[in-house]
Amino acid sequence: MRVLIVRHAVAEDRETFARSGAPDSERPLTERGRARMQRAAQGLRRVLSDIDLLATSPYLRASDTAAILATAYSLATVHRVDALEPDGTSTAIADWLRSLTGVSTVAIVGHEPSLGLHASWLLASSARAFVPLRKGGACLLAFEGRPAKATATLKWALPPRILRRLAE
């Protein structure tokens, strides 16, 4: 199995949005963030041609990012996975990945610092993140067997700037 980990694109400023009184889970992408993610998704498509399953945190900024990826990959369905919320655990992510059958490449969209922690745990059982993801950035992990801590191989990690350049 391969797991593409994507951090959500640039969203509205947290403090400014908080003054609206709406919960942080409803904080949307900025127009610039949306446009940049569309280009990054095109670049992603050049380095990873297919995704079998796309999952997202239920937070708006992540689900909007996943919708951009779904369009780029011509996917009709985006799965909501509560374990991808900012406070989700690496164990819950691994359990969910192991529950999937017949899937060779899955993409997950979520938040930092959680995603970096999940990647680091899957790579080396590390409790500290050593795979940071910029907004709109991505990394690809590969597993020989079932996903579990310290069983992944890092294939690549690309910042959004490089992904956007790949789209050109």
Question: What's a concise summary of this model?
Answer:
By secondary structure, this protein is of the alpha/beta class. 38% of the residues lie in helices and 18% in strands.
What do these coordinates show?
Strands 3-2-4-1-5-6 form a six-stranded mixed sheet, sandwiched between helices. 42% of the residues are buried. It contains six helices and six strands; from the N terminus they run βααβαβαβαββα. Helix content is 38%, strand content 18%. α2 crosses α3 and α2 packs across α6. By secondary structure, it is an alpha/beta fold. It starts with a strand and ends with a helix.
Rg over alpha carbons: 15 Å
Number of helices: 6
Integer average pLDDT: 97
SSE string, helix = H, strand = E? EHHEHEHEHEEH
Biggest sheet: strand arrangement: 3-2-4-1-5-6
Given the C-alpha coordinates, what overall shape results?
globular
Helix percent reads 25-40%
Low-confidence runs of at least 5 consecutive residues:
none
Determine the N-to-C terminus distance: 29 Å
Largest sheet, in brief, is: 6 strands, mixed
The counted number of beta strands is 6
Strand content: 15-25%
Oligomer: single chain
Structural class: alpha/beta
Quick tags:
168 residues, 6 strands, alpha/beta, six-stranded mixed β-sheet, single chain, 6 helices
List the helices and strands and how they pair.
Elements lengths: L1 E6 L6 H5 L12 H17 L5 E4 L3 H13 L6 E2 L9 H10 L5 E6 L3 H11 L13 E6 L8 E7 L1 H7 L2
Parallel strand pairs: 1-4, 2-3, 2-4
Antiparallel strand pairs: 1-5, 5-6
Helix pairs in contact: 2-3, 2-6, 4-5
